Amino acid sequence: MKVLMFGWEFPPHISGGLGTACYGLSKGLLYNGVEVLFVVPRMYGDEDGESIRLIDASDVLLDVNEVKYHEVWRKLTVIGVHSILVPYMSPEEFRRASTFASLEKTDIENSVFKTKFQFSGKYGHDLFKEVARYAVVAAKIAASNEFDVIHAHDWLTYPAAIAAREVSGKPFIAHVHATEFDRSGEHVNQDIYDMERQGMQAADKIIAVSRLTRNIIITRYGIHPDKVKVVHNAVMPMTQQHKRPERYFPEKLVTFLGRVTFQKGPDYFVEAAYKVLKKDKNVRFVMAGTGDMLPKIIRRVAQLRIGSRFHFSGFLNAREVDHVFGLSDVYVMPSVSEPFGISPLEAIRSNVPVIISKQSGVAEILRHALTVDFWDVDDIADKIYGLLHYQGISKMFIHHGKDEVENLKWDDAAWKVKNVYEEVVQRKNSIAFQS
User: Fold this and answer.
1) What single string gives the DSSP state of each residue in 244-295?
2) How far apart are CA 22 and CA 209, in angstroms?
3) Handedness of CA 247, 248, 249, 255 (dihedral sign)
4) C-alpha dihedral over 177, 180, 183, 184, to 10 degrees?
5) Distances in Å between the alpha carbon of 219 and those of 69, 104, 152, 215, 222?
6) Are 87 and 15 in contact (CB under 8 A)?
7) What interhelical angle do 158-168 and 127-143 show, nearest 10?
8) 69 pLDDT band (50/70/90 cuts)?
9) CA 182 to CA 88: how far, in whole Å?
């Protein structure tokens, strides 16, 4: 079986958990005998070339049927289509990011269907135009390759998957890692919601990363329950055991890792930190990540006068994340709405006890973690304090949590995804036979 998969990230260039999940799932599918043709908007040239051959679509003919596969990952090809989009960027953020960009004079439709297409690096101001451009390229790629099923990750890729299905007639799986309700609460962007709903309605099957997400898909998007399958995410095993880095400060360290946005609850982390510091001054807090709420969070830290114990690291790459986890004593994920949440699994893998919100998908499968309501800053503060000062509790969660996380394998998640592929392909073939 072969799948044409559309995503927006590929390690090491990731903006969050989506790229990590796509990478882990792709490897798991390969382990389960599924060939993967993975399409991303842009390649940077420093991706994992030892494991996979990466192809930038600007440098190759659109007919990619003759691509030779790498020995190790010989079944996986990644085609890069240049774009400035990132998977979590809102339309407003995109417009700000492209303020000085100018629209190409050549129409997309006329340029992209040349034998070999080139992007100048100048892009329009409209996020949705970029999504449409990706869909045009997707249709051409689908027409040039053979595959059994189409798999698209989140709303930015749904139009691409729909276009590919129109060209190929192959079934389409929509993989929902987050919804507009997770990102924006009740203040949804109607255009994004409409695109999400269109993709879900067009899909032959939907994979949700948690029961929490499945419920949102059914109740908020009007999708029939029989169409939605839950496949929880997993975590990549550590390739080697890292030594705990030397710590050049005596205080304990509590970490927040994620986009500094409404969805992730960074403001609740700050309020809890303030309460902990009123009891114990010998604690440091680090907020790793960037996002639209960062200026507000910095101002709040200044107002609370805890700046000497609060650090903003900015975005961290995978190696830097491992380093911070190696220094950390507690990891906190106070998300307002978290479809899954891979970072707590990565923290536990690094021997760090975790506190996670009850409003997260990972809470459905992770038993050895402390859970809180995201808004209950008193409870968050009490549990941070407890893990810092009662080593017996901390060691218990680390020991049992690590055993638990080691059993959450991408190979197993991919096996469930493969079953979904086989179901939709069989149904498609049965309908074709009957007609």
Assistant:
1) PPPPSSSSEEEEEES--SGGG-HHHHHHHHHHHHHH-SSEEEEEE---TTHH
2) 12
3) negative
4) -170
5) 43, 41, 21, 6, 6
6) yes
7) 30
8) very low
9) 11
Of the candidates 332, 7, 42, which has an alpha carbon nearest to the alpha carbon of residue 150? 7
What does the pLDDT read at residue 205? 98
- Give the residue among 103, 30, 100 at the shortest CA–CA distance from 72: 30
Report the distance separating Cα 402 and Cα 291, nearest Å.
Answer: 30
Q: 33 in the Ramachandran plot: left (φ > 0), alpha (ψ -120 to 50) or beta?
A: left
Distance CA 31, CA 327 (A): 33
Among 212, 209, 205, 207, residue whose Cα is nearest residue 408: 209
- Report whether 251 contacts 283 (CB < 8 A): yes
CA distances from 106 to 31, 82, 123, 126, 245 (A): 43, 16, 12, 16, 53
User: Six-digit token pair at 391?
Assistant: 């080593």
Q: Count CB-CB contacts under 10 A for residue 393.
A: 15
Smallest CA-to-CA distance from 286 within 246, 329, 243, 317 is with 329
φ and ψ at 288, to 5 degrees?
A: -105, 115
d(CA 52, CA 183): 32
Q: Specify the pLDDT at position 416.
A: 98
* pLDDT tens digit sequence for 158-207: 988 998 999 899 999 999 999 999 988 888 888 889 999 999 999 999 99
Alpha-carbon span 67 to 381, nearest angstrom? 54
Can you tell me whether residue 173 is helix, strand or coil?
A: strand
- Whether a cis peptide bond, with omega within 30° of 0, leads into 12 is yes
Phi, psi torsion values for 297, nearest 5 degrees: -65, -40
CB atoms within 10 A of CB 400: 14
Torsions phi, psi for 331 (to 5 deg): -115, 135
The CA-atom distances, in angstroms, between 316 and each of 31, 134, 278, 356 are 29, 28, 29, 20
DSSP-derived secondary structure letter, 242: P
How much is the pLDDT for 318? 84
**Residue 398 in this model has a pLDDT that exceeds 60:** yes
SS3 content of the chain, % helix, strand, coil (to 5): 45, 15, 40
Tokens found for residue 39? 């399409």
Residue 260 amino acid letter: V
Q: What is the DSSP letter of 333?
A: E
- More confident call, 126 vs 22: 22
